[in-house]
Structure formats: C-alpha cells, structure tokens
Design brief:
The protein is mainly alpha-helical and 353 residues long. It contains 14 helices and no strands. Helix 7 (191-230) runs antiparallel to helix 8 (235-246). The chain has helices at residues 3-31, 33-58, 63-94, 96-124, 142-173, 175-183, 191-230, 235-246, 252-255, 258-264, 271-301, 305-319, 321-340, 345-352.
C-alpha cells in the first residue's frame, strides 16, 4: 500500500477513535452525573476554602485539624443561612393565602383563554367518519408523576450533599499527598508540564470562585437594598434568591424576575412597580455581565461568548441546573488543558478567541 494511502487510513482510524472516545465520555458524564457533579462541587469548594486552610497552617495549626475546623465552620454558616431561609419561607407560607388570590385570578384567566382556543380548534377539526373506531387513551397522572420525579431528585440531592463535606475535608487534608500521587501518574519528562498545567488550573478556578462570590455578594446586597427601598415583603429572602438567579448568564435576568413578581402580587395591583422591578434587575444584570464579571472574573477565565453559550447549552442539557452552574469552570479547565497540550492548542485558542 502506498505511503499516502497508509497515511489517509491512519488519519481516518484516528478520527474514528476520537469520535468513539468522545461518545464514551459523554455517555459516562450523562449516566454518572450524580457522582461527577458531587465530586466537582467538592473540588470547587476545596479550591475556595484552601487559602483559609493554608493560612491556618502558617499559624502552626496542623493541616488536618485546620481542614476540619474550616469544614465545620462552613457547615455552621450554611446551617445558619438555611435556618434563616427556612424561617422566612415559613413566614411566606403563612401569608400564602394572600398571594394565592391574584395567582388564582391570573391562572383562571389563562385557563379561560385556553378553553376558548380549544373550542375554536375543535370547531375546525373534521368530524369522524362513520365506522371509525375511537380509541380511548388512559390519562396519566401529572401530579403523581411530578411528585415522584421531585422525590427522586430530592433523594439524589441529599445523597450528593451528604458526601460533599467528607470529600472536601479529604481533599483539603490530603492535598500534598494527592498532588504527589497525581504527579506519579505521568512520565518524569512530562511532570513539569503537568505541574504548570495544574498550577494554571488552580489559579483559574480560584480566581473564578473568588470573583463569582464577590459578584454574587454585590448582586444580593444591591437587590436586597432595592427591594427594601421599594417596600417589598421579605426583601432579604427575595434579594438572595433573585441575586443568585441573576448570576446565571443570559437566562439569569429572566429568572431573577420571578421571586419579586411572586412576592409583589399581594402588594402591587398596577403594572408600574413590576416594570420598575424588571428594569432595575435588568440593569443589574447588564452591569454584572459587562463590568463586574469582566473585571473580577473574565480576565482570568477568558472564554469567548460563543464558547460560553455552547458550554451552557451542553452542560445544562447534560446535568440540568447544576450543569448551568458548573459549565463555566469546566470549560475554563478544558481551555487550560488545551493550552498546555500541543495537539489541542488550536482548540484552546478557539475557546478564547
């Protein structure tokens, strides 16, 4: 066989192998989503908390003890925030009858319009011919199906959240051992390149987490103060949920409208306050996307808009809401790896173009 044909066959086989490998990886990410999401969340939290553990270690606190202290303090802070949110949510539940009236009226109006539309469609629909058999299809139970689906999702969430603190502790306490063991996986000649790549991954993830946390805090405070000035009920709870939703790229501005819309139905009976809320939250999102995130996060992540959008679509389809949260750090890590692998450097340049 000539050399050119051999080269073509080898190239085709290599491309087929890459496609098959990519399919296997995607299938694994889909079916092992619970395990992967739990591990990735633990990794991000470990990167976020590692500077505190390192500082305690410099203060002559053993690393294992410092890791335990940091994890316990973090759990205590999350427990206090969770209790505060539950208390606010319980108060909101007591006032639910006041919110239910406008929601019922809006729902009734929508149902009336849908019924009128169905009547018009049924008038246009041709009548069945004589002799045709009408097959009755048993109706499903959407409420029961939705409840079972939510219970399954809740079980998966609780299962993953139970393992996260232990994973974070082990990652923080055994950081040096894990780093050394990771280096041993590669040949001696490649360890310097791997060390540089891991150092860049650490810097990118830490910068992303710190910057995102600061941007989220600014959004929550701004939303809280705005809702308090507006006189909206539950301003802290509404500002917390709305601010966190506003962090989601693109869709966040729409998601951030729903909490104040739901709470404001009892208080406001005209369109004006809602237009003001939508305008201000949109302004917050524009400032965040164009000023805060580029200044505090984007300078280190360096992902173009197209790559970011594709990543959000792909990981959102793969893992749902958690995929939207993890899409940016996963893509940023992929970019760093591509920048340090010679054959993948064009992909890294495309991601940051």
């Amino acid at each position: 066989m000539p050399a050119e044909e051999t080269k073509i066959v080898a190239t085709g086989s290599s491309s087929s192998a890459r496609i098959i490998a990519a399919g296997i990886v995607i299938a694994f990410c889909y079916w092992a989503s619970t395990v992967l999401v739990t591990v990735l969340v633990a990794v991000l939290m470990a990167y976020f908390l590692d500077p505190v553990v390192t500082w305690l270690e410099r203060m002559r606190v053993p690393r294992a003890l410092g890791s335990l202290i940091v994890v316990l303090v973090t759990l205590a802070i999350l427990a206090v925030l969770g209790y505060s949110l539950i208390e606010r949510a319980d108060q909101f539940g007591h006032d639910w009858p006041k919110y239910r009236a406008p929601l019922s009226a809006a729902t009734l109006a929508v149902e009336t319009r849908l019924e009128n539309f169905e009547k018009h469609v049924s008038e246009i629909e041709p009548a069945p011919h004589p002799g045709e058999h009408v097959v009755a299809i048993a109706e499903s139970h959407p409420v029961r199906d939705a409840l079972v689906g939510r219970l399954n999702s809740l079980y998966v969430f609780i299962l993953g959240a139970t393992f996260v603190p232990f994973l974070v502790f082990f990652m923080l306490a055994a950081k040096r051992q894990v780093w050394h063991a990771t280096m041993q996986l590669f040949p001696a000649g490649e360890r310097t390149q791997v060390r540089d790549a891991l150092a860049d991954v650490t810097q990118v993830l830490r910068s992303y987490l710190m910057g995102t946390a600061l941007v989220g805090l600014i959004l929550i405070l701004a939303s809280w103060l705005f809702f308090w000035w507006l006189g909206l009920d539950f301003p802290f709870l509404t500002g917390l949920v709305s601010g966190l939703c506003n962090l989601v790229p693109y869709l966040g501005v729409i998601l951030s409208w729903f909490p104040p819309l739901l709470v404001g139905l009892k208080q406001f009976h005209t369109v004006g306050p809602f237009l003001g809320i939508f305008t201000m939250l949109t302004f917050f999102h524009i400032v965040t996307a164009n000023l805060l995130i580029p200044a505090l996060v984007g300078w280190r992540v360096r992902l173009n808009a197209l790559a970011l959008t594709v990543a959000l679509l792909f990981w959102g389809w793969m893992w749902g809401a958690m995929g939207l949260i993890l899409a940016i750090p996963i893509t940023a890590v992929i970019k760093v790896i591509c920048d340090h692998v010679e054959g993948l450097q064009p992909v890294g340049r495309w991601l940051s173009a």
